[in-house]
Input
Amino acid sequence: MLEEDEARQRILDQVELGPVVWMPVELARERTLAQEIRGIADFPEFDNSSMDGYAVRAADATMGATLAVHPDEQPAGIDRCLELEQGQAIRIFTGAPVPKGADAVIMQEDVTRSDQEITVDDPVVVGENIRRRGGDVCSGQKLMSPGTRLTPARLSLLHSQGIAEVPVYTQPMVHIITTGDELVGPGEPRMPGQIYDSNGVLLRSSVESAGGVAEQIHLADDPDTMVSAFEILCEVSDFLVIAGGVSVGDHDYVKPSLQAADVETDFWRVRVKPGKPFVFGRHPSGCLIFGLPGNPVSAFVTFQLFVAPAIAKYLGHPTRPLAQPLGIAGEVLENKGDRTHYLRAVDVQGQIHLSGTQQSHALFGLSKADCLVRIEADSSIAEGAPVSGIRLS
Ligand code: AMP
Ligand code: MG
Output
């Protein structure tokens, strides 16, 4: 049985970066940049006014001074190439180019206008209310590194530079396969003994949150159906995520069916709770196969431990340790078993408390959790001691 860290490393060693595609900036939200971006223009590109007011020479605009208003105005969006002479003021608007000869803008609220003159009620200093050329970005300056997540603000910066398309990593195509004769889809009629499929939506939305494209297919516990489905899906997926049927029960056909579909098993079973029967393999097509235990909490935890990091690597996200400091234990946390345990917990102002029953079918506790606390095998964490684990968002 592999240790958790070794299992994850063996998976990551097999994940390659996704192909790079160029796409319109407006479609690239949350995608990962595949190349460095440098400024292609100064921003602002010209000195411009940050206020509606009057362009002046600061030396003329002393307290109580009267300045003659130039007959032309300088609006935003066009450079009228006006020139300011001594003792003059030019009416100017926010974003408009600062006329030659002016070195400050006085706000319209700080003057008294009468006909073709203004009187200064509050003087300005050189540079006041002027946004300087290149004050934010200089042409050639490095703006973003490969691996940067494209947030709304970063998309906006790209457009401000006139950049319309960006190179990003392709999203992985992930097929989710739920298995089990006992399962019916939500909203469908149920016979006694049947249960609703809850892994489908759990894993599809987890794939999407991690940045992949998800499709779900449900398979009966039948080896022939599984073999043909695996053969087809391995050809059209980057990753295959199978839930259920990976254990040692009489109806757990996933492992032999994977083998019959030409998938080479890399490892089966990891020293982690929940999630021990996890299986990982590779198809000759390059598709990577993740077999998750069927219990929903086990499926969720193993997804976080092994599938989410693989999607992150494919997408070019910077690598970071999975377990992060979470806060301090709000109660004694114990693991008497011989496997690393991930417990469902909530962060109450920095104090980490368990969120309900910890059994691997218990979705209510998972639904309340905002973190998974990691406890090493055969150890305990005292109340008030620091804890680490995975933050769920
Ligand atoms: P298995 O790993 O197939 O033996 O499944 C373990 C447990 O998880 C069983 O109680 C299954 O009924 C349950 N289970 C498997 N798949 C799902 C699913 N898609 N939704 C809800 N429960 C499931
Ligand atoms: Mg099953």
Q: What stands out?
A: The helical segments are 4-14, 152-160, 199-210, 223-236, 254-260, 296-314, 363-368. The longest strand covers residues 340-348. The domain at 48-131 is CATH 2.170.190.11 (Molybdopterin biosynthesis moeA protein; domain 3).
